[in-house]
Amino acid sequence: MIIAPEAVEPPRRPAPVTAPAAPGRPPGLLVVAAGVAAAAAAIPLVYLVVRATGGGFEAMLDVLARPRVLEYAANSLGLAAAVTLSALVLGTGTAVVLSRLRVPFPRAWLLVSSLPLAVPSYLAGYGWLVTLPAINGFVPSWILLMAVTVPYVTLPVAAALRGASGDLEGVARTLGRGPVRAFLVATWPQVRPAAIAGSLLVALYSLSDFGLVAMMRFPTLTWGINQAYAASFDRAQAAVLALLLVVLALLVVVGERSARGQLPRQAARAVAPRTIRRGMLVALLPVVAAAPAVGVAVPLLGLLARLLEAQTLRELDVARLLGAVGATVGVAVGAALLAVLLALPVAALASRYRGRLVSALESVSYLGHALPGIVVGLSLVFFALAVVPVLYQSVVVLVFAYAVLFAPKAISTMRAGLGDVPPRLVAVARTLGDSPLRAWWRVTVPLALPSVGIGALLVAIATMKELPATLLLRPTGVSTLATELWNRTVIVEYGAAAPYAAMLVLLAAVPAVILSGVRTVAKEEL
User: Which InterPro entries match (predicted)?
Assistant: First the structure.
């Protein structure tokens, strides 16, 4: 039973114990726990720097000056730039159509526009290769990456448009500006931070992608890292390339912060969706459907066609499929639990306290958000071999890699949930004689539990879809659905890959459906 604060506070006398306030000093135990989590998140990057610089700067420069390396870097940057710009334009256009125009079944269209988030890039590539086996190179990589990343822009821009004031746009229209010009002058500055933040996710996704570009035989840095690691005599090159990829990702993050800017919040007047001619509406809806069609519909139709072939059904190895399902579920559950344990102290600290130490610990804990999976996997390979060789190629290292990569997803949702717990309720529990830990357990945990569950589900979904780190770190003889799909696609056994692809889609859909029922905003984190 929770007693209202007014019922227990003595009049004209402050409560003897208060909940921690933002300017207060955080408990030492909480700081230590958050420090351990931050240190765990920093292991891949720190060890990668040590490994890459171990041969000296001259050796690093020698690797970076190789023509092939320059080609990898140019391809990565060119692909990321093309995907980011096209996703920004298409995602913003889609958000405007769904938010500012009167379309039939707007909620259904918004759901359709977010579907590509549930499809890994390599699964989209597999679906297209089944249909058109000869496609390869830059253009298919660009189009498919754009299709699966457009929702990263559409969802935040649509949310920003719902809260953006329409007064200035109305004034611009009365002054003779056309719809597009009025939007760019009056509304775009208000939604620019959301659009640029979504573009950051697109750019980082494009830089870190490995499965799709490898399937399309388009050599980027991630492809070069995998090739250099596979050549055991040149693993120093793999470390240098991985460090170069991290530097590019950090430059993207810095550029995003400077480009996003800040806009003071203003009182917003809701803008009613405009009714347009049916002909124009019919012309605009294909823009909304373009990314779901390319990134979801065609791949799933190709998958279904292969899955229903008689030869595929005859050659299906049920025992191997069930083993891959068990391994996928097992590592997903383990990663979700470990990620929540690492994220909890950081989220609790950041939700209640401020200061340079708190900001530093939180920023370091978010490192996994900027580190590509192949970089984390490679650095943990080096770390395990040098520091804990007994754990090399063990499930422990694999689950730890997932936790480092995806703990930021849990931190962001858990921080919001913990921050929503009223401090006065904790103060009331303290006045009733509870210790700080018991008060936190009785009051904060039950109220924040939904956000903890959402964070765990987000980690589980991301773990099921992760490919490059799994390829580098999985124990010998253990295969997940993603690695089974990859291994068969590489040797052009598309029919044999179909059952694993279908099961991956079904498994990832389970937590996604749970999320959509728990909290609509959680879909934006997928």
Answer: MetI-like (IPR000515), MetI-like_sf (IPR035906)
